[in-house]
Design goal:
By secondary structure, this protein is an alpha+beta fold. It folds into 2 domains: 6-188 and 370-405, Aminopeptidase, CATH 3.40.630.30; 193-349, Gcn5-related N-acetyltransferase (GNAT) (Aminopeptidase, 3-Layer(aba) Sandwich), CATH 3.40.630. It has helices at 31-39, 53-61, 104-112, 140-157, 169-177, 200-204, 209-224, 239-255, 264-273, 331-346, 380-405, and strands at 10-12, 19-23, 71-73, 75-80, 83-88, 90-93, 120-123, 136-137, 161-164, 181-191, 227-233, 278-285, 288-297, 316-324, 351-356, 367-377. An 11-stranded mixed β-sheet has the order 3-6-7-9-16-10-15-14-13-12-11. Strands 1-2-4-5-8 form a 5-stranded antiparallel β-sheet, sandwiched between helices. The radius of gyration is 22 Å and the shape is globular. The termini are far apart.
């Protein structure tokens, strides 16, 4: 794909006060200005680590999300004079991997009709199915201005489609105003009550007897196998632990005959540029590490010593990556759910997001949450067909959510 000269690509908005510039690298966008916009999105979006400039820049500079891996950056920026008023991380894609909102059927339908679905445009964080602000802007009007300009740019480039993945309510409102179609999926998140929990046992007592018994049995299996855990946060995660974690992470992919999405260099950059956003659990037997899980956290100085101000922030942990060098029954559940949940309770974190899909997470008290993506298709006939499909799919998702809500793991008085 051709390299852009951002100073020569201008798409005027409806107002003469704004200009759109499209950058061919996240490094072309000033990091402080980007993060300033992110902070303006409010809690918890302003604390989302995956939309930080450092995270997106590391994906690019490490070779993890680049044209060579099918992620060609075209960061769209909205300017008012010399001030960055809006921005979004857009990528041109020649495949649909690493997105977690599946449109393979749409691509196949295009191909069967002799049409090209790729390249398409995706506004998302590569390989990261975490809901968050995708259209960074100072206010709702500029957010709408930004998405309209993005659609106009996609039309100008002759792209088949535009997809905004795992958006916020504010993004959805702007996309609806711009005429995009909405699509819903389901994730599973844990949320603490307003008063929090005293400890993990206090949390267990909120669950039904069946679920409480199951969790205790699973934890006992890991303990009886001689497994203990230690955790490290931020700059306390040493180089050896990062190396061991990556060995586990890569092994998970290789076991499924896939190459890891993220390179070792990416995590080196995380260690250097945003260590405060990472929490590592290492499972050991007789002092020898055998497994690890890496959790992202919304870093904040407030809420120290297990306290938080519910009026101003929602402190969130995000289950991200895990791997093991040997198989131990229930070790995955302990490393990826129970250890992080116990840590969240102890440190006053109000939410734990368990990642994409996984109905089994309900048994661990992660409840269903609807997530939303927005889509624009250039071809009118295909857009009509997809709109009808999404209406049917949306009814199915709504029914699925209703069914899941009837299966709450909490006591009847708390469900």
């Amino acid at each position: 794909m051709k390299k852009l000269n951002p100073e020569k690509i201008h798409v005027k908005s409806d107002s003469n006060d704004y200009v759109i510039r499209v950058m061919d690298s996240p490094l072309a966008v000033d990091g402080a200005a980007w993060n300033g916009l992110l902070a303006m999105q409010g809690a918890p979006q302003g604390m989302n680590p995956f939309m930080r400039h450092e995270y997106l820049a590391a994906l690019h500079s490490s070779g993890s999300a680049t044209p060579e891996t099918g992620w060609t950056p075209r960061f769209v920026t909205l300017w008012q004079g010399d001030t960055l008023a809006g921005a979004c991380a857009l990528y041109l894609k020649d495949h649909s991997y690493g997105e977690y909102v599946f449109d393979h059927a749409w691509a196949n339908a295009y191909q069967q009709n002799g049409l090209a679905y790729y390249p398409k445009a995706v506004v998302a964080v590569p390989f990261t199915p975490v809901p968050g602000a995708r259209l960074l802007a100072r206010n709702a009007a500029e957010r709408t201005q930004l998405i309209k300009a993005v659609v106009a740019w996609c039309e100008q480039e002759g792209l088949s489609s535009l997809h905004l993945l795992f958006t916020t309510d504010e993004d959805v409102a702007a996309c609806e105003e711009a005429g995009l179609m909405l699509r819903h999926t389901v994730q599973f998140h844990w949320t603490a009550p307003p008063s929090g929990y005293r400890d993990f046992d206090d949390f267990l007592m909120s669950l039904s007897q069946e679920k409480r018994k199951k969790i205790r049995q699973e934890r006992r299996k890991v303990l009886d196998a001689g497994i203990t855990f230690r955790s490290s946060q931020g700059t306390n995660i040493c180089n050896a632990d990062w190396d061991f974690f990556y060995q586990c992470y890569a092994r998970t992919y290789y076991e499924h005959r896939n190459a890891p999405y993220l390179s070792r260099n990416f995590f080196e950059r995380m260690q250097t540029t945003m260590p405060e956003n990472w929490l590592l659990f290492v499972a050991e037997r007789d002092g020898v590490p055998i497994a690890s899980s890496l959790i992202a956290i919304s870093a904040s100085q407030a809420g120290a010593e297990g306290q938080f101000d519910s009026k101003n922030e929602v402190r969130t942990a995000y289950g991200r990556y895990w791997g093991a060098l040997e198989r131990v029954d229930c070790l995955h559940f302990e490393a990826c759910y129970y250890q992080p949940l116990a840590w969240c309770i102890a440190h006053g974190f109000q939410r734990f997001e368990g990642g994409a899909q996984g109905e089994h997470k309900m048994a661990r008290a992660l409840l269903p949450v609807k997530t939303t993506s927005a889509h624009w298709l250039a071809h009118p006939a295909f857009a009509d067909a997809v709109e009808r499909y999404l209406a049917r799919e949306g009814e199915g998702i709504a029914n699925y959510l209703d069914d899941l809500e009837k299966r709450s793991p909490f006591k009847a008085s708390l469900a």
